[in-house]
Amino acid sequence: VKLIESINLNNIRGDITGGITAAIVALPFALAMGLASGAGAEAGLYGAIITGFFAAIFGGTPAQVSGPTGPMTIVMSLIVTKYLALYPDTGLALAFFTVFLAGIFQICFGLLKLGKYINLMPHAVISGFMTGIGVIIIVLQLPQILGFYEIKGSTLNIFSELGNVGQLFSNFGAISLAIMTLIIIYL
């Protein structure tokens, strides 16, 4: 209701431009996060659309950009991997049901205004969590960087598969592309 009341037709051109800009920025990221989660690019796209819809309704501010994030992608990839390993036929449905329940909990937490208690969480815990997520994201990208597209699974599975040093440097094209990309990014 507040969102509808806050609409000002004098700013409609800027609102449309801002919406298009946010969509252009969010689309590739959503597709990448969907792929990284193991659920596919289509799931990332739907996740961005549905997240944006619910964030506009239940969010704290009407002008926010929301979508899939790195930490949630890692959590989702672990859920998908575990359920698919345990239940090959229904694992994907169980994983999405788990995510649906998590979304219901988040909406309830938001309605109860429980977000204000995040200030009680020590900074070291949040920093450690985010560092761990960063390490997991890097490890999950190692098979693609090294050209081993058939390696799937958890971080421990990736390390065990990458243990074969003889194969490790067999795909020079993928490794050189990864090195050049990292050089361009960090220069």
TrEMBL record:
Coiled coil: none annotated. GO terms for cellular component: membrane. Residues 13-186 form the SLC26A/SulP transporter domain. Its main location: membrane. InterPro entries: SLC26A/SulP_dom, SLC26A/SulP_fam. It holds the Pfam family Sulfate_transp. GO terms for biological process: transmembrane transport. The chain crosses the membrane at residues 16-36, 43-63, 92-112, 124-148, 168-186. It is found in: Membrane. This is SLC26A/SulP transporter domain-containing protein.
